[in-house]
Design goal:
The structure holds 2 protein chains of 2 kinds.
Chain A lengths: L8 H11 L16 H10 L1 H18 L1 H4 L32 H37 L1 H15 L3 H12 L3 H10 L3 H14 L3 H8 L4 H9 L4 H25 L10 H8 L9 H29 L6
Chain B lengths: L24 E12 L2 E13 L4 E5 L6 H9 L6 E9 L2 E2 L5 H4 L7 E4 L3 H4 L6 H10 L6 H14 L5 H4 L9 H12 L6 E5 L7 H18 L2 E6 L2 H7 L2 E6 L2 E7 H6 L4 H8 L53 E2 L5 E2 L17
Parallel strand pairs in B: 3-8, 3-9, 6-7, 7-8
Antiparallel strand pairs in B: 1-2, 1-4, 4-5, 9-10, 10-12, 11-12
The chains are: A mainly alpha, B alpha/beta.
Chain lengths: ~325, ~350
Amino acid sequence: MTTHVPEPQVAIGDIADIAEPAGLPPGAEPVARSNWQLFRRRFFHHKMAVVAIIVIVLLFIVCFGAKWIAPYPKNAAVPGVIGAHGPTAKNWMGTTEASQDQLSQILYGGQVSLKIGIGVAFFSTLFGVLVGAFAGYYGKWIDQGLSRLTDLFLIIPELAILAVALTRLGHTANWIIIVLAALGWMYLARIVRGLIFSIKEKEFVEAARAAGASDRRIIVRHILPNCIGPIMVYMTLAIAIAVLAEATLSFLGFGLQIPATSWGLLLKDAEPYTTSPDKFYLIVFPSLMLIITVMCFNFLGDGLRDAFDPQSKH
Amino acid sequence: MTDNGGRDLDTAALATDASGRAAVLSVRNLRVEFTSDDGIVHAVDDVSFDLFPNETLGIVGESGSGKSVTSMAILGLLPTTAKITGEVIFGGENLVGKSEKELRPYRGDRIAMVFQDALASLNPVFKVGDQVAEAIKVHNDVSGDELREKVIALLELVGIPNPRQRVDQYPHEYSGGMRQRAMIAMSIANDPDVLIADEPTTALDVTIQAQVLDVLTRIQERTNSAIILITHDLGVVAGVADRVLVMYAGRQVEIGTVDEIFYEPKHPYTKGLLASLPRLDRRYEHERLYRIKGQPPSLIFLPTGCSFHPRCPYVDLDGPCVTVRPELIDVGGGHCSSCHFARTLDERTPADDL
């Protein structure tokens, strides 16, 4: 160029800031975290999600701090009490058939339920992202193979496999996490595969390739950060699903066994009293904990989805 | 420029320019073909040129003339379905046929690319500074404050205002011109020998266009890199390029210095392109702008002989135009034209009024 055009640079920037609304311009992908502050603002607009996250934090504190908070040690019989009785000033949630303080049992049981929820969500997300990313990025026969594998796992009769596998492997929390995760990664794998299919065609991926980035670098550093929204939302929901799955398994007798304790096990112990209204507390309190936990994680997922979506109305 | 410049098709020896400098990049008989359901698409058909240090080569042509495919082929960025033959000689090595892994050290480090749509080419979820840093980190082991200072210096170099604040902003907070500058900052991060700019200004308005081109020119003065500027805007080429390669239907029709191409075009297509430009020194009260009649041909069913002959006002229907594919003819000093009548074109009478 022969002529140097004077550059009204600052003005250009200022105009752009006014002209382009915060968040992404219309038509752009509803991708994650273009701005942390916007993200936070959208999240805090979702009142239920804020309540949910407070409840979840409290839940974690009381359950994992049970050692200091719970009125009685784990599995300890309450002195002077025989069998189940209703809530009293001493035993707020009553006592169980084994004369244990139900509040203490619920707090200790929560440790296991929450640990299984988090563990399953973590490992199924990890595996799902891995499979989805490989299938979506490389396509062709790798995608064919991995997608058929995903389909295969989706048609497995889950409960039967869980029952057999856990009976063989042992009824411990760790095995439950592994087996539940092994049977729960397929949904996220499909989501991530689809996302990557569309993102890998974007020009910034081409630009990264032109800059000499390797496949691994492109997937990990350029593509996956664009999927963080759906992955996080899925992960919170996976926690809720896994907590329920553990309760179901333990209730049916395939999951944890006494002397371990979990919300599902407490429900299992209460099962003979489903028809006796005077022992309602044996069913109501563990169920309440499950409902609260699952609802809170669902609301958290809702809030995250809104926060990750720049076009959300909040 | 010697006879070699731009058309040394037979020898593998490195071409040199007038001052004896060796070409930094030599493309020889490059062909790119795609297989489609309808037949073979000849996207690039026998293109050869040299690129010298500190030089800007403009590649012009209409959509589908093979400009972008040529540049993608140089970096090996075409999909695996593309069949590429010929040679791309860079640093004494032929890049054609190299694997992804072998090409990676070249990409972004020694040959860099600026894409057309800066918003689409920037990752929306990362700060611009992080993306420039990423371009450096791919090839160099730097981090921390050193890296950050380097990024800020780069943003400053390409004329981003307040680089210290802007480095922490996201692409959507940048204006169109600034995004393209950020892209340029990323591409020059590793001082490449060759910078390929694929229509870097097409999406920008003229003022910003001028600023971005100015940045490219300033960068070149600093780094001595050679620039391939792909565009369909003849005005941009006239302003920035040293030499021009004109492409039509995947073939190169003419190559020469800017002055040669603009003042003494030796190919009917180039003549037509220039005649179709509105000019400030002419009045158009009663006449329409010139247009090249017809449509660009399908790249699957190219016309026989010279691919431009169905649209050419100079065509000799009884002559070689219809049957023989023209070779590049040197009309003097490296100015080559692939017209059978390149040397005598000015004496011929066109069928319609040029």
